[in-house]
Amino acid sequence: MIKLGVALTAATAAILVAEFFRHRTRPFPLYGWMGLAALVGFEWLMFRHVEPVATYFTPLAWSCYILVADAAVFAINGKSRLQQAPMQFARIALLSLPLWLMFEAYNLRLQNWAYIGLPKFWLARYFGYAWSFMTITPAIFVTTDLIRAFNWFPPAAPVKFSLHVHRALIVSGALLLILPLTLPREIAAYLFALVWLGFVLLLDPANYRLRLPSLLGDLELGRRDRVYALLISGWVCGILWEFWNNWAAAKWVYIFPMFQQWKIFEMPAPGFLGFPPFALECFAMYVAAARLLGWLKPRA
Q1: Which end of the chain is least crowded, N or C, by CB within 10 Å?
Q2: Of the candidates 84, 78, 91, which has an alpha carbon nearest to the alpha carbon of residue 138?
Q3: pTM score
């Protein structure tokens, strides 16, 4: 179903571009044009199997995308992460690597995906891993910034959850994360969806209780924009991950034991449902990790 995947990717990109032009207030920055030109060039080289672009296409494409998306945010808001907080953005990229490795650790047991076409030389291989993984959280966050810049989600009625609900969410999240590690592997292989939900349920209530940025805190203030923008960002990044991965020389393939006959690009179609909650997890995990490192302070 590659044609369907291309159509979904094109429709997603078309909506983003149309909304960008509708909300733009200033010229598109030079670094955005440079990122766009580089992305087109890397695409051309990748389809012609020119090395090392074909092998390193995933981190190259995502590095360019981050520049383009951040420039689009700046052209709308007059500020962006790379322009106003480059050091914080570097920290996000740095933390993205160990945070994603937590999912890789789960995959060692659950065996839901594998990598093919990787360089044989270990240094080249692990360089590609690290670079690729360091683009994951920045891509989610800058796409979230872009969606929020469109002002799609006005304030709504506040929603406050009790301490008992917070505790239930934390316990539920812990159980979702423990079950795939304790059940027999032949059963656990079907349960990676629990991991895509577990971290946000475990960490977001804890972040709220520690007076850190949280999705529950946003809902309590009547703000829906970050929650919804993260969910949409998960879809946008998910479809782009699979689109660009499909033709790269070094890529991932999915080997989990179901829905293999319903693939869109390399991803079995139901797997796309995991990308929106994954974006919520990226946010909750980054906040918790940044607090542990002293990069985030509780609000007064």
Answers
A1: C
A2: 91
A3: 0.95
Question: Rounded distance, CA 121 to CA 108, Å?
Answer: 21
Alpha-carbon gap, residue 48 to 107, rounded angstroms: 32
Q: In whole angstroms, what is the distance from residue 57 CA to residue 59 CA?
A: 6
**Which residues lie across from 251 on neighbouring strands?**
116
What are the residue ranges spanned by the domains of the chain? 2-292
Q: Shortest CA distance to 41 belongs to which of 55, 28, 60?
A: 60
* Better-predicted residue by pLDDT, 16 or 260: 16
Single-letter amino acid code for the residue at 163: L
- Nearest residue to 30 via CA among 42, 40, 38, 20: 38
Q: What is the pLDDT of residue 300?
A: 67
- pLDDT (tens digit per residue) in 2-36: 888 899 999 999 999 999 999 999 999 999 999 99
